[in-house]
């Protein structure tokens, strides 16, 4: 009987904690959102400009041109939203350590296939993280201007991510997993 009570207690506690994790607050502060979004955006621009010099793959170069252009536009939209924000959220002026490490790996990569694999891998990771960030802020964010930015930018990021998948399928570029 004692074993059945312990088992029942464990099941009840397990169900409770799994519910708590499933309903965890996924929101971030406006400042955290702006810092994360601007770092991700800055890396997309800088790495894409680097890809224009180091890639030899036509599809990768075309993608990089598009990313540099689209993320430059997104940077302006984010800056405008941050200015309209009810907070004192500041845009990143240089890459944080995480994003700088990725950029350094890309700078050190050999031109051509090695670079392409690392660049597309970084874009895949970055867009996946950015989609999650914007989705969460669009649904849970507190600042109206930033929430609107997240809602409007999210479809573009999803299209970018789909294009990455197309490049992976079409061009034979395979993602090189980063060592963290």
Mind telling me the CATH class?
A: Mainly Alpha
Radius of gyration: 20 Å
| SSE order | HHHHHH
What's the main sheet like?
Answer: none
CATH topology: Ferritin
- What is the mean pLDDT? 84
Low-confidence stretches are: 3-25
Structure description:
By secondary structure, the protein is mostly helical. It has a single domain (27-171), classed as Up-down Bundle (Ferritin), CATH 1.20.1260.10. 78% of the residues lie in helices and 0% in strands. The chain contains six helices and no strands. The N and C termini lie far apart (48 Å).
Write a compact overview of the structure shown.
With 180 residues, the protein is mainly α.
List the helices and strands and how they pair.
Elements: H1 2-22, H2 30-54, H3 58-84, H4 97-108, H5 113-140, H6 144-171
Helix pairs in contact: 2-3, 2-4, 2-5, 3-6, 4-5, 5-6
What are its keywords?
elongated, 78% helix, disordered N terminus, 6 helices, 180 residues, single chain, mainly alpha
């Amino acid at each position: 009987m004692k074993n059945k009570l312990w088992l029942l207690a464990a099941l009840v506690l397990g169900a409770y904690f799994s519910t708590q994790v499933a309903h965890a607050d996924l929101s971030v502060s406006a400042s955290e959102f702006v810092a994360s979004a601007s770092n991700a955006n800055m890396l997309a621009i800088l790495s894409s400009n680097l890809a224009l010099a180091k890639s030899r793959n036509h599809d990768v170069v075309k993608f990089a041109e598009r990313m540099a252009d689209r993320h430059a536009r997104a940077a302006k939209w984010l800056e405008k939203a941050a200015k309209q924000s009810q907070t004192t959220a500041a845009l990143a002026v240089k890459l944080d350590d995480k994003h700088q490490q990725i950029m350094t790996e890309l700078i050190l990569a050999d031109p051509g296939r090695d670079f392409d694999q690392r660049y597309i891998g970084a874009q895949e990771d970055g867009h996946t993280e950015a989609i999650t960030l914007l989705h969460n802020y669009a649904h849970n964010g507190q600042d109206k201007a930033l929430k609107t930015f997240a809602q409007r930018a999210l479809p573009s990021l999803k299209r970018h991510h789909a294009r990455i998948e197309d490049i992976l399928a079409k061009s034979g570029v395979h993602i090189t997993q980063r060592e963290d």
